[in-house]
TrEMBL record, chain A:
Record GO terms (molecular function): NADH dehydrogenase (ubiquinone) activity; NADH dehydrogenase activity; ubiquinone binding
Protein name: NADH dehydrogenase
InterPro entries on file: NADH_Q_OxRdtase_chainM/4, NADH_UbQ_OxRdtase, ND/Mrp_TM
Parts of the chain that traverse the membrane: 70-92, 104-123, 129-146, 158-178, 202-222, 234-256, 268-287, 294-313, 325-343, 364-385, 397-417, 438-459
Naturally occurring in which organism (per UniProt): Pelobium manganitolerans
GO terms of biological process kind: ATP synthesis coupled electron transport; electron transport coupled proton transport
Membrane topology: Multi-pass membrane protein
GO cellular component, one term: endomembrane system
Residues in the signal sequence: none
Main location: membrane
Stored Pfam families: Proton_antipo_M
Keywords: Membrane, Transmembrane, Transmembrane helix
Protein's cellular compartments: Endomembrane system; Membrane
From TrEMBL, chain B:
Species the sequence originates in: Pelobium manganitolerans
Gene for this chain: nuoN
UniProt subcellular location: Cell membrane; Endomembrane system; Membrane
Major location (coarse): membrane
Subunit structure: NDH-1 is composed of 14 different subunits. Subunits NuoA, H, J, K, L, M, N constitute the membrane sector of the complex.
Protein name according to UniProt: NADH-quinone oxidoreductase subunit N
Length: 484, 459
């Protein structure tokens, strides 16, 4: 029952926000912190082995083999932590902004949190799908109501892309369901299926379509830069920080273990697509003049590497992907928040118009630097351990792939540091002359982000430990089927 | 069975109320009578073991479920009619009476056990609808709708009747169980005229449910009729048509699916694409809804194409979801048209700001139409996809997915207009009945989406 409270408390919070319009932000923040408290208390009771814990299994539509079954293992635990840690930060980042219809915005964020937690803990394919789609509705409205000038067209594209992908996944889920002996949607029954490789080969693409659009993997990424740019920053953080991890989590939990033969057939192609994404995202990021767009493309590159790590399906690659999902969430929120602070004060997104801010805003300049260093994976920051493990995994898979993917570190150092230089250093100009340093809630958010970056960077072991047993278990399960 | 009697008598009572100028009693009497009919229908759950009236009707659970669904939809529509009919005509009692007569025909259509009863029920319903479509006597579009509907309807009835005659010629009976026995007794091959009969009946039924390429009457009739009558056609009539269609095919023709399935499969695919692609190009909200109703007919045909144990369930859930969403959409359209005089998408601009409640329920309805989870529409689509995949129609589902994606474009146009486009407009005023119906429909849509076991356990 413990888990049910975690899953549905954000919904309660979202109703509370709607009822308590005058203190919407505060209510939302309190709700998300309480949710974080639940998650931490579960972490304390969590045994880091491969088993599913805190399992709830309620009848939902028993005659169709659908149950409300959710549980947490090491992989889910990390994702739950990601969601519950980042949501309060995201909410806090909106504190000194004014929004129209504030209560609706924060209610939608909490609603989305609930859907995300369902996705990350679902052990029933139907429940997974419902959570997957339910997360899409709030983010669509967040982007479309509070977004920039071009938002209608962009959000249409975003919605159609993701909805199309998930419908194909639904096809795959129903098909698999019909193959299970007792006609159930249970994850374990899906794992136990032994379909022939040609069936798995086409089912692979059904699931891959849904996950690749969310992540996004090249060439399914075209919705992403526009959506990230046009969304309100709070929506961009939700998208980049948490939501795209749904796709990677889907690869790890559903696609590969359920369809090992399909995976074996297509893994080279999938890995090549990921690596193309890494290089492509980096190269385009070089040429961006818009700070938000630059971060959006850099995100394509970073996420491409995480997905590549998953497709190598070895311990280093997967563990790297696990920890890097958390790190990428933290870093991307830091980057987008800094970008939002700057854009908000200068009323422009053009990097060329900025400069010299470091001189008059020392707190911002230090926190921004730490975030950038985390994103470029400097040793002793969180990005380093993740990318190191990921590249290690890719290296075991194929040296050339690792060599090309390794360029991401160099590339990202170049464009992110260049961005930092152009924005923060140099001479002050008319626009940046009156820049105010960060204070209050901004300082709290960036402070927490920086602390996380450094703490995880220096001592990542506890986090790696959470998911290690579960990852090992999954790898063993898949490899035994592949050897068979 | 009892509910049929109640509805028939109710129609006559309402007619007399009109005669004695008891205008204010019309709505309460009709609604109370329908509630009584609903209760009586539900009481017959699990009791209709055998056909009654010399095998003419069979009030099995299928009939009970669909009777209840159509009665509930009719109640919701009648609640919306307060003040609506008075604006169109002076003889308000006629409306209630004719709608109730149509409902009586519909109850026969969902409970027949003899092909002659199918025909009788269909005709009672259709003749009532011809009148209802043309009830705005001085309105050009309404007259056109009525005439078109009548000509096309008469034509399709001819097909149906000829089909029934051919079946009789081959099997020597109108009785469904005798025909079913005839089919199973001759596994090696049937009389060729029986096959011809199936095709003709299929064409006749496709006309009635508005499946392409027999859908040409739908847009004009739906657009020309008074909106509330359109609502009735799109919800109750469509539900009944599919129930009758499914009943005949699942009882009698299931063993012959190799023969009729390919044809119906082609009809389904054409219906999906024609409905969706045409809806995409409409600027008029009402016309968009009519074309989308064609495409939804395509999804509903899935259950018949993939005939199996879950088909009745799938149709029931889908029609329930579709009816609720349609009632919301058409009801808000009535309000919007009253204020702006236009039925275009643009007339919804800025509704989200002025009428948050109306905008919210329309959003729920559009999400349900589009089949987004947590709404009843998703559960309906989910069942349709499941039943199609059960029979390994993978390509059909892939085509359906493409159509579902297309449909996002036009359903979301309404949401975009309501929330993201601003317009100078006044707040819409709606009476309490509207709020009740809209709120109830939206809540039921979400409840069924979250906990569908409420109605999926029925069959």
């Amino acid at each position: 029952m413990n888990l049910l409270i975690l899953l549905f408390f954000p919904l309660v919070g979202s109703i509370a926000v709607l009822l308590n319009r005058n203190y919407a932000k505060q209510t939302a923040l309190i709700s998300s912190i309480i949710t974080l408290g639940f998650a931490v208390s579960m972490l304390c009771n969590f045994e880091a082995d491969a088993s599913k814990q805190f399992v709830v299994d309620l009848a939902w539509m028993p005659q169709f083999g659908i149950s409300f079954k959710a549980g947490i293992d090491g992989i889910s635990m990390l994702m739950v932590l990601l969601t519950t840690v980042l949501t309060p930060l995201i909410i806090l980042s909106g504190f000194n902004r004014t929004f129209k219809h504030t209560s609706a915005l924060f209610a939608l964020i909490l609603f989305m949190q609930s859907a995300l937690l369902v996705v990350f803990t679902a052990l029933d394919a139907f429940l997974f799908y419902v959570g997957w789609e339910a997360a899409l509705i709030p983010i669509y409205f967040i982007c479309a109501i509070w977004g920039g000038a071009d938002r209608i067209k962009v959000t249409y594209k975003f919605f159609i892309y993701t909805f199309a992908g998930s419908l194909f996944m639904l096809l795959g889920i129903i098909y698999l369901h019909l193959q299970t002996p007792g006609n159930t949607y249970d994850l374990q029954a899906f794992y136990a299926l032994n379909l022939d490789s040609s069936t798995q080969a086409w089912l692979f693409w059904c699931f891959f379509a849904a996950f690749a659009v969310k992540i996004p993997i090249f060439p399914f990424h075209t919705w992403q830069p526009d959506t990230y740019t046009e969304s309100p920053t709070i929506g961009t953080m939700l998208l980049g920080g948490i939501m795209l991890k749904m796709g990677i989590y889907g690869l790890v939990r559903w696609l590969i273990p359920v369809l090992p033969l399909g995976f074996a057939e297509w893994k080279e192609l999938a890995l090549i697509l990921c690596i193309i994404g890494v290089v492509y995202g980096s190269i385009i990021a070089f040429t961006q003049k818009d700070i938000k767009r630059l971060i959006a493309y850099s995100s394509i590159a970073h996420v491409g590497l995480i997905a590549a790590g998953v497709f190598t399906w070895n311990l280093q690659g997967l563990q790297g992907a696990m920890i890097q999902m958390l790190n990428h969430g933290i870093n991307v929120i830091g980057l987008f928040f800094v970008a939002d602070i700057i854009i908000n004060r200068l009323n422009t997104r053009e990097i060329a118009l900025m400069g010299g801010i470091a001189k008059i805003a020392p707190k911002l300049s230090i926190t921004f630097l730490i975030v950038v260093l985390g994103a470029v994976a400097l040793p002793l920051t969180n990005g380093f351990i993740g990318e190191f493990l990921l590249l290690n995994g890719v290296f075991q898979f194929n040296i050339w792939a690792a060599a090309i993917a390794g360029l991401t570190i160099i590339f990202s150092a170049v464009y992110l540091l260049r961005m930092y230089k152009n924005v923060m250093q140099g001479t002050l100009n008319e626009l940046t002359g009156s820049f105010k340093d960060i204070h209050g809630s901004e300082l709290v958010v960036l402070g927490v982000v920086c602390a996380l970056i450094i703490v995880i960077g220096v001592y990542p072991q506890p986090i790696l430990h959470i998911s290690e047993a579960a990852v090992n278990g999954l790898i063993g399960e898949v490899n035994s089927k592949l050897a068979f | 069975m009892n509910s049929l009697i109640v509805v028939s008598i109710l129609a006559l009572v309402v007619l007399y109320l009109g005669l004695f100028k008891a205008k204010n009693a019309l709505l309460p009497v009709s609604v109370l009578g329908l509630v009584a009919a609903l209760v009586l229908a539900v009481c017959e759950w699990n009791s209709g073991a055998a056909p009654i009236f010399s095998g003419m009707m069979h009030f099995d659970n299928f009939a009970v479920a669909f009777t209840s669904l159509t009665v509930v939809s009719t109640i919701l529509i009648l609640l919306l009619s307060k003040q609506y009919f008075e604006k169109i005509s002076e003889n308000v009692a006629e409306y209630y009476t004719i709608i109730l007569f149509a409902l009586a025909g519909i109850i026969i259509m969902v409970s027949y056990h003899n092909l002659s009863m199918l025909f009788v029920g269909l005709e009672i319903m259709s003749v009532s609808l011809y009148i209802l479509a043309g009830i705005k006597k001085r309105d050009f579009a309404s007259n056109e709708a009525s005439l078109k509907y009548f000509l096309m309807g008469a034509f399709s009835t001819g097909f149906l009747l000829f089909g029934i005659a051919l079946l009789y010629g081959a099997s020597h009976s109108f009785d469904l169980s005798v025909i079913a026995k005839y089919v199973t007794d001759h596994p090696e091959g049937l009389n060729p005229i029986f096959y011809a009969g199936i095709v003709l009946i299929m064409v006749g039924m496709c006309f009635k449910v508005g499946a392409a390429p027999f859908h040409f009457w739908v847009p004009d009739v739906y657009e020309g009729s008074p909106t509330l009558i359109t609502t009735f056609m799109a919800t109750v009539v469509k539900t009944a048509g599919f129930a009758a269609f499914l009943r005949l095919f699942s009882i009698c023709f299931a063993p012959l699916s190799d023969f009729w399935m390919p044809t119906l499969l082609a009809i389904t695919i054409i219906t999906l694409f024609i409905g969706n692609i045409t809806a995409l190009f409409q600027d008029n909200f009402k016309r968009m809804l009519t074309y989308s109703s064609v495409s939804h007919a395509g999804y509903m045909l899935f259950a018949i194409v993939a005939l199996g144990a879950t088909s009745s369930n799938a149709i029931f859930v889908y029609t329930a979801a579709y009816s609720l969403a349609s009632i919301i959409a058409f009801a808000v359209l009535i309000l919007v048209k009253e204020q702006t005089g236009s039925e275009n998408f643009d007339s919804f601009n800025g509704l989200g700001k002025k009428n948050p409640f109306l905008a919210l329920v329309v959003t729920v309805s559009m999400l349900s139409f589009a089949g987004i989870p947590l709404t009843a529409g998703f559960i309906g689509k989910f069942f349709m996809f499941s039943s199609a995949l059960q029979e390994y129609h993978i390509w059909l589902v892939v085509l359906a997915i493409i159509n579902a994606i297309i449909s996002i474009f036009y359903y979301f146009r309404v949401i975009v207009a309501m929330y993201f486009k601003d317009a100078e407009r006044k707040e819409l005023v709606s009476n309490g009945y509207f709020k009740l119906v809209l709120g109830a429909s939206a809540i039921i849509t979400v409840v069924l989406g979250v906990y569908p076991s409420l109605i999926t356990d029925l069959f």
